Structures are given as C-alpha cells and as structure tokens.
Amino acid sequence: MAGETNASTDAPHVRFIGVQKTYDGASLIVRDLNLDIRRGEFLTLLGPSGSGKTTTLMMLAGFETPTSGEILLGGQVINRVPPHRRNIGMVFQNYALFPHMTVADNLRFPLRVRKLSADEIEARVRRALAMIRLEEYAKRYPQQLSGGQQQRVALARALVFDPQLVLMDEPLGALDKNLREQMQLEIKHLQRTLGVTVVFVTHDQGEALTMSDRIAVFHQGAIQQIDTPERIYEHPVNSFVANFIGENNVLPGIVRRMEGGTCEVELDCGPRVLAHPGPVGMGDRTLVCIRPERVVLDPPEGHPNRLGATVRETIYLGDQVRICLAIGEQQEFVIKVPISRFDPGWSVGTTLHVGLDPNHLHALDAPAG
Amino acid sequence: MSDFAASASAIDGADPDLKRRMRRAERRRNLAYFALILPLALLVLVAFVWPIASLLVRAVENEGIHDNLPQTVAALRAWDGPELPDERVYRLLADELAQAKGTPKLAAIATRLNREEAGLRSLVMKTARHLPLPADVSAKEALIAIDPAWGEPPIWKTLKRAGHPFTAFYLLAALDLTVDAHGHVALAPPQERVYLDVLGRTFWMSFNVTLLCLLLGFPVAYLMAILPVNRSNLLMLFVLLPFWTSVLVRIAAWIVLLQNEGLVNRLLLSLGLIQSPLPMLFNRFSVYIGMIHILLPFMVLPLYSVMKGISPVYVRAALSLGCPPWRSFWTIYFPQTIPGVGAGVLLVFIMCMGYYITPALLGGPKEQMLSYFIAFYTNQTINWNMAAALSAILLTATLLLYAVYALRFGPTRVKFMKAR
User: Fold this and answer.
1) Each residue of A207-240: pLDDT tens digit?
2) Option in A88, A100, A114 nearest B320 (CB)
C-alpha cells in the first residue's frame, strides 16, 4: 500500500495510548484502545452501532474526553485541548451546514475565525468551490441544495482551512446508493490529491472496503483487527471480522491436528477438512469460515476438502446465481456461481460436490458458549 | 345551459353526467368543510369582529349635533362663511332648539358643543331658556339679542364642524392634537397634553418589560432545551406554575410581599441592609415585577420551542472549524433562535401594551398605561368616543408592530429555518 510505505518512516500522526471511555462508570464504551494513525492515510473505523467507533472519533475531535489514557496529535498530548484549538476538520453525519449562512459564508466561516485577510479568504473560498464544482451555488442557502451538493459543501468546509487531519462521521449515510458510491470515490480522490489524513467512521463495510487504506474493525469497544481492506477481507483474524465484513459461511468444528501452516478440523456436520489456522490450538472449538465466492464447484477427485452437498434453493441475481446448500447437518451454506457456470438442471435436491480451498478456509476462534 | 347539457348528454352518453356528479360531490364536500368551521366563524364574527368594528366606528362617530339638529346641519351645509348665515338657518336652529328643550337632546347638544369650545354649554342653555321664539319676529335678530355670540361667524363654523356625522376630533385628541380656528391640525396647548405622554409611557414600559423578560427567559429556555428530558420537564413545571393561579391572586401576593411591612422589607431590615423600609409598592418597580412575573412564560415557551429544534451539532461544527465556544454560540446558535426571540418579544410586547390590571393595582398614578384611560372613559366619564379613539390608537400601534414583525420574521424571511 502506498500509504504504508511512505508513512512507515514518519512518526504516527495520531496515537491513542491505553484510551478508555465510560459514560456511567459501569461499562466501558471504549476498552483500552491503542491505535496509531499514519500521516496521510485513509483510516476507516468500522463496526456495528455501539461498538465505540463514534466515541473514538469524538474523543479525537475533542467533544468527548477520555476517562483514562492519552491521545497524541503530532506528538503532543491533546486530552485537555478544547476542540476549537485542535485544528481538525470534521464532516458531520447530517452535514451541519449553518442554515442561516450561504454556501460561501459557510466556507468563509473557518477562515474568518482564523483572521485571514479578505483577499486570502476569497481566494480560498473560490478554490474550495472549484474543487467541489459548485461555483455557481455560492450564494445559495444550504437547504436549497441537494443532499449530494450539501455533502460536498460540508467536505469543502472541513478542508478549506487546510487541516492536516479530517474526521468524517458517517458522512454518506443520508445519501442514496448511487450518489453514495459516487461520493466515496470523490472523497477518496480528494484525500489522495490533498494528502490529508482522514479518519472515517462508518458501519457500511462496502464503503470501508472501497475507500480505506486501512480499516480498524471495532466490536464491543475494542479493535478486533486493523489492516488493509484486502487483508481484512481475505484474512480475518476472528469470526466477528469474518462475519461483519462481506458474506461468510461458517462451519463449526473441533481442531484435531495442527501441522505447520495448516490444521485439520473435524466439522460438526461430519467430514474432516484442512484449513488455514487462526488463533486456535489443538482440541479447540473452532469456526471455519470461507467466502461464498471462494468455494469451488465440482472440484477434481483428490481435492483436499471435497464435500458433498444438496441444493436447497437457487436465487437468480442476473450476473450470478446464489445457491443455498446443505452439507450434512449444516443447513446454511451459500455459494455464488457466475451465470456462465450455472447448470439450469440444478434444482432443489440435486447433489453436487464443493471444494473448500484450504488457503481460503480459515479456522477461527469460536465465541464462548 | 341546462338545455345544452341535456342535449350533450343525449348525444355523448355519460360524460356531462359524470361532470355534474363530480361537481355535486365537490359541492357536498365543501359544504361539509364549511359546516365544520361555521360555529367558530360565527363566534369570531359575533364576539370579535363586530364589537371591535363597532368600537372603531365610535372613534370617529360624531354624535350630539347631526342627530339632534338635523335640519340646521343640513342648511349649514350650503353655508361657507365669512358672512353670517341667513335668516332661514337662524329660524331652523331656534325651532330645533325649542323642540329639544326639556328633553335629554338639549343636554347632548350642549355637552357636544362644549367639547369643541368651553363655554358653549352655557350659551346653548341660555339660548334655550328664551325659546321658543314668536313666529313673527326675525330669528336672526332675536338670537343675537339673546347672546351677541350668535352674531359672530365662529360659532356657526363650530356648529357646522360639529355637525358632520363623522369627525377626527377624538382620534386627534387621543394624540394630543386639535383643530384650531383655521381648521389646521395642531398640537394641543401644553397644559392639555396627556395622551402622548401616556402613549410614550406605555411603549417605554412595554419595551422594558419585554427586554427584561427576554434577558430572564433566554437562559431558562436554553437550559430547558439542552437538559435531559426528565430535568427539563421539571423546569417546565416551574415555568408553567404561574399559569395555574389567577392574575389577581398573584398581584395580591406581590402586594403582601412588597409593602412596607412586607416580607421583603422586613428581611432586608433584619439583615441590616437597609435602615428604613424601601418603597417597593405602587411604583414602577412593583409594576415591572408583577408584569414580568405574569408575562415570562409567554417569552420562555416560544423560545424553548424554537431552541428545541436546533441541533447541538451546529455548535459542534463551529467548534471544529476553530470558533471559540462563546463566539460559536453568538454567531451560530443565537441567529437560529431569532424566530423564537421574535415571536416571544412580539407576544410579550403586545400583551404589555394592553396591560391594565397590574399597573392599576400595583402602580401609582405615574404607572398607568393607555388601557387605564380607556377604562376611565368607558366606566367613569362615559365618553365612549374618546375610549374608542384611544383603543383605535392602541390597536393601530399593535398592528404596526405586528407588520414590522411579519416583514422581519415572516415566512419569507425565515424560510431557511424550515428545511432543516
């Protein structure tokens, strides 16, 4: 990753060291957070609601104070720095454009506060409007713009005073699907061009995969895994990450043999399979996980994980067909077949063979209970 | 038309029939809507529009002359100085005055003319004593013989002016204006000026009360808007509490508290803060206290309803953009509360303008506002014209204020507030 290589020489832009946050003194919203954010990277905090990702962002913005631990920005502890002195740009969930100011006044606001000269302010506002291609909307009020346009203005306002760090709190949640995908690319391109560090909060895994240099997956107040989108998707470290991101098939079983880079798992539904071991040991309960698109249809004899399956349901999706299979007792197993490889003769009750590639079959921790 | 419709339906089947049925259904629906608002519309008409309209008419109605001396007034219409009217007018006046003699009409004529010019009452009474005149004498000579004033044009001009069915006299008087002998509008002599002072006082006291209500109510409304619901509900209870006791009870309570032997004075005395009781009753202070106490909820509630709708995210956004907290509040939060401020200020100010009972009970003579004089003319001197004129001035001032509010905070100006 480009971000990784040139950032590795720098000190981290932001560091969370042992940060905890509780609101009621009883339960921790954020448990012992240690996180380094590299300069110029696009880091996404991804997780379900209540996972602590937004609280983490708010602590970085200064709207929440950590109960314990330290947050460092550019090497300085900022726990006690009030939000208006942090020089961090922020894009809010519902844009938070000031309704009583025009688009141009919204953009002027952070510059006026910084007491820049009038010429400088106008030049920067013009540049910001050009950047989001809304020059002719300068004199409109925010509510006279469409959702996408408001979103772009909010983005420009967070960038117009040249902050080194920009935080985004689910900024695309209110947009419809097409616009959202378009804005994802636009934000990503802006971030690349300007070279700012972006911390982006979302619960949409597709968004996270599309935009991020790295993703930090949050669950129950802790980071489960932090890595590139590819590593997160292909090599999830636990079953939560595997299930939360993308579609996933889960087969419970017990680890019977560990051997170098592979392990042998006896599945609850009968057969034994070879898998790539995650954080599991001999005799442990495990969940073996595989992405639907990694399942091979009709593997040759001698494929290490060749299993028989029965078709329960086929769902036609246009470009592909989702087939729900039953493997022994296991009733829930989904594969995706490109339409060109789909045999119309497969109907409910047809038996087939599926192959689970050991490199893409991950034996992960089974949650307690 | 119906013929055409009938023939058309004969040729063209169901089409016109369909239209007719649709129209009938719409008419029925409109009638139903109308029936729903009818009771309220009638009530508003009978209890609001009609009384106000008839009151306003009284402000310009000129009773006393044109109804009691109809023929004289009609004859004077043709006369226009500077020489004296002819014999016919004198005769008509003498006859009509003679008819009025011994009835309340004469008193009405005398009272009305006396309002135009002091001294005319005795002239009318004196003249009437000598009436009726014998039919064979010159009425002109006889009247001038009774009083030489009848031989001068001004009395006739006054009579002509007072004889109009409508007059601006009361409205002008309510603004301390009179019409001088030349028919020009001018300020009344200083010793007769009353109402400009009272009007100014009414505005000034209303302004002060409104400002104090805003200063006291704004923080309360803000606190209610940012506190969690359970605590803001408790605060709301305290705000609404004054609504549950009658105005009179609250005023009586203030009299008990503020009098020389009252709780406040005794407390201050026993604390040694003052040596002798402070005069806190029957002055501006007590009137302000009483009015603010009663009017504060009318400021807090509109403010609160607007503030409740302002998301805290705007101030956060301002902070994140580098704006210090206090400035964020003033440049981002406060402008968004303007519709609430406008509504609260308008409501309180208009209620202040019409305040009567609180100044009447808690104030001295220098605290009486315009409504006191309206009540005075209505109940004590029974000069309904003057009461109506003062009411009209008050109503106009109020409507002007509302117009200013509508222009400044009306739907077009606060359009941006809606789209949030």
Assistant:
1) 999 999 999 999 999 999 999 999 999 999 988 9
2) A88
pLDDT at B255: 92
- Where would I find the beta strands (DSSP E) of chain A? 14-22, 28-37, 42-46, 68-73, 76-77, 88-91, 165-169, 197-202, 214-219, 222-227, 249-259, 262-267, 272-277, 285-290, 295-297, 306-316, 320-327, 330-338, 351-356, 362-365
Distance CA B73, CA B84 (A): 15
pLDDT surpassing 90 at residue A101 = yes
A110/B321 CB distance under 8 A = yes
What are B330's two structure tokens? 């003033």
Radius of gyration of chain B, Cα coordinates, nearest whole angstrom: 32
Measured between alpha carbons, how far is B353 from B243 in angstroms, rounded to an integer? Answer: 20
Are A2-239 and A247-365 in the same CATH fold?
Answer: no
Q: In terms of DSSP bridges, do strands A272-277 and A262-267 run parallel, antiparallel, or are they unpaired?
A: antiparallel
Q: How far is A61 from chain B (nearest CA, A)?
A: 7
Query: What is the dihedral angle through the alpha carbons of B356, B360, B366, B371, rounded to the nearest 10 degrees?
Result: 20
Domains of chain A, by residue range, sit at 2-239, 247-365
Would an 8 Å CB–CB cutoff place A316 in contact with chain B? no
A88 CB near a chain B CB, below 8 Å? yes
Q: Do A98 and B420 touch (CB under 8 A)?
A: no
What are the structural domains, with CATH classification, of chain B? 2-60 (no CATH), 70-165 (no CATH), 195-418 (1.10.3720.10)
Domain A247-365, classified CATH 3.40.47.40, yes or no: no
Contact status, residue A248 vs residue A288, Cβ threshold 8 Å: no
> Given an 8 Å threshold on Cβ–Cβ distance, is B322 in contact with A98?
no
Check if A157 contacts B (Cβ < 8 Å): yes
Site from B313, B314, B315, B320 to mutate, A interface, most A CB atoms within 10 angstroms: B320
pLDDT in tens, B356-373: 999 999 998 888 999 999
Across the interface, do B328 and A84 touch by the CB < 8 Å criterion? yes
All residues at 6 or more sequence positions from B141 whose CB lies less than 8 Å from its CB, including other chains: none
Q: Tally C-beta pairs within 8 A across A and B.
A: 80
At B299 the pLDDT is 95
The Cα–Cα gap between B417 and B302 comes to 15
- Our CA dihedral for A210, A215, A218, A224, rounded to 10 degrees, sits at 130
CB A348 within 8 A of CB A312: yes
DSSP string, A303-330: -TTEEEEEEEEEEE-SSEEEEEEEETTE
The whole-number pLDDT of residue B45 equals 93
CATH top-level class of A2-239: alpha beta
The nearest CA of chain B is from the CA of A80 a distance in Å of 15
| A157/B320 Cβ within 8 A | no
Give ipTM to 2 decimals.
0.84
Predicted local distance difference test score (pLDDT) of residue A7: 41
| A143–B317 CB contact, under 8 Å | no
At B147, the pLDDT band (50, 70, 90 cuts) reads confident
Report how far residue A210's alpha carbon sits from residue A218's, in angstroms, rounded to the nearest whole number.
18
Which residue does chain A place closest to B325, by CA atoms? A84
As a whole number, mean pLDDT of residues B31-41 equals 93
On chain B, the residues whose CB falls within 8 A of the CB of A93 are: 313
Taking alpha carbons only, the member of B109, B84, B86 closest to residue B96 is B109
Of A83, A98, A100, the CB nearest to B320: A83
